[in-house]
Amino acid sequence: MEEAELVEYFRAQIREDPDVASAVAAIQSLLEFLKRDQSETILGLRENMTKAIHRLEETDSSVAVSSGGELFLRFISLTSLEHPDLSQCRNVMIERGELFLKKISLSRGKVGKLCHTFIKDGAKILTHSSSRVVLKVLENAAADNKRFTVYVTESQPDSAGELMAQKLRKLNIPVTVVLDAAVGYIMEKVDLVIVGAEGVVESGGVINKIGTYQMAVCSKAHNKPFYVVAESFKFVRLYPLNQQDVPDRFKYKADILKSVKDLNQEHPMIDYTPPSLITLLFTDLGVLTPSAVSDELIKLYL
Amino acid sequence: MPGADKEIDLSERIESFLSELKRCGSGAGSLRGSAETARETTALLRKITAQARWGNAGELMEIIRKEGRRMTAAQPSETTVGNMVRRVLKIIREEYARSRGSSEETDQQESLHKLLTSGGSSEDNFRQHFAHLKANVIEAINELLTELEGTTDNISMQALEHIHSNEVIMTIGRSRTVEAFLKDAARKRKFHVIVAECAPFCQGHEMATSLCKEDIETTVIPDAAIFAVMSRVNKVIIGTQTVLANGGLRAVNGTHTLALAAKHHSTPLIVCAPMFKLSPQFPNEEDTFHKFVSPHEVLPFTEGEILSKVNAHCPVFDYVPPELITLFISNIGGNAPSYIYRLMSELYHPEDHEL
Lengths: 302, 355
Description:
The complex is a heterodimer of chains A (302) and B (355).
Chain A: H1 3-16, H2 22-36, H3 42-59, H4 63-82, H5 86-105, H6 107-115, E1 123-127, H7 132-143, E2 148-153, H8 160-170, E3 175-178, H9 183-186, E4 192-195, E5 199-200, E6 206-209, H10 212-221, E7 226-229, H11 248-251, H12 254-259, E8 270-273, E9 280-283, E10 286-288, H13 290-301
Parallel strand pairs in A: 1-2, 1-4, 2-3, 4-7, 7-9
Antiparallel strand pairs in A: 5-6, 6-8, 9-10
Chain B: H1 2-25, H2 34-51, H3 57-74, H4 79-100, H5 112-117, H6 133-157, H7 159-162, E1 168-172, H8 176-186, E2 192-196, H9 203-213, E3 217-221, H10 226-230, E4 235-238, E5 242-243, E6 249-252, H11 255-264, E7 269-272, H12 286-289, H13 304-307, E8 317-320, E9 327-330, E10 333-335, H14 340-347
Parallel strand pairs in B: 1-2, 1-4, 2-3, 4-7, 7-9
Antiparallel strand pairs in B: 5-6, 6-8, 9-10
Helix pairs in contact in B: 1-2, 1-3, 2-4, 2-6, 3-4, 4-6, 6-8
């Protein structure tokens, strides 16, 4: 399978189902690549796979695609360790890959079911930008006949908050859009903050749309719980100590990285929220405290 | 018929246990300590395993789960009952896995690794019959009972590491675990204890009397004086009713005040809690979290005139967030609050969190 075909397949996945997580689409495309791959050795397979992942990361530079790709690579390594013979290995891989894909498409539902019990009747919730997982959580809570109101930040520069507000209005949830700068102002009114995540890092912190860190600091100052909802395939092997440590390839869109000379003039799209500001993480592996995240990653990568 | 007799006997035992649970909840504090409740629950579960009719592990788990739900519904604030039920369920799962010969004990938990490597159905509905399962489960429950009996001693053995001579220790109310802890340290060291009386039930008074009998210098202070005295205190050692899944506590009312005062003065807060108090609940579940008893201790009924004009409450428990706690001392050693999630995953299976 050529790299252009791969990118086209990836884009097609996202076009067909705009609700699908980009990591799931990436893994699906990689599985398709695996099926059509012609290499004779496992090493060759790994090399092709690594190239394919890089190509996908160039198309969509989000953290989620990167974590999905790394997970898939790990999946190949683990399976190839058990079955050294390539053809047998490939069949096992394809079978397990389909199963894995099926499981992770259900992750969002699991997270939604887990989190909505934390939303009490009459709660005022603050969220940031547009997250499909947060939407699922709020959908589940509304289906449970809970009454709550939502404040969404506008989330410039792409006004993703407006999109979120529209989706919430369709669910008959009262929603107010606030300016990004109004987070400190609105914090005293809200009861809890729920945000999604593009990536969950090893320390238990999260990488999310720019403005999340600000919201976390404000909620800490006002003693409000700050919850993060994320599926487990977003766990990524990074350990940033501050905002500068987050690699540039995640901060800026792929085309900007290629075309612009001076990155200092560009606005980053994401920021890093340290684990000390996060109360709990809701994942399909259960409700985790930030210290439990590194345990999960160790179990996988060791 | 002997079979039917046994069954009637069993259901009678369960009913009497349930009614005792309901009754002791309405008193001030607990008429029986958590350790006794845990022991009785486990003994009852062992009896159910021995005498109830079941063919395979799945049926046994269903029976235990059903009885467990009834028991927790009888007294929701007594979390040790639910915890013991979950421990026994985990024991059954482990024994079943061992009988099947699979070494999947560590694979019980959901993890990314398991997601990636599992091939085919991991749906295990525990339907296989094993002849020795009953004996194995009962033996494991007996081990659990032995562990329960040794918890207070295990905790007290660690006292000398934490209490040094001429220290001033503060505690609140009456905790049998802390009492044993302090008494064990008093055998070799000389220190002072300040007990906050913990109104309105004033269990602190009984604690002070009991400590005095062992020649420990004790002072009783009213709850309002906690902050004032805190600057002179070296350590705060408390017990708790429950340890929650996020590392927070559900303890007797007044503990949050004590914890905040300790944080303000940077005094370490040590919680002595045996493992059976660890519960997979999170602190948001409003309906089961708070418990109120009759407010006549707060505002006696004799004050008839005021009664119609004010609302009086008498909450029994307090929530203490994990950031205020320094160390948990349990029968398996000392742990930080951020490590509680790990201990929980070892004790309970995630599917049993909701009984």
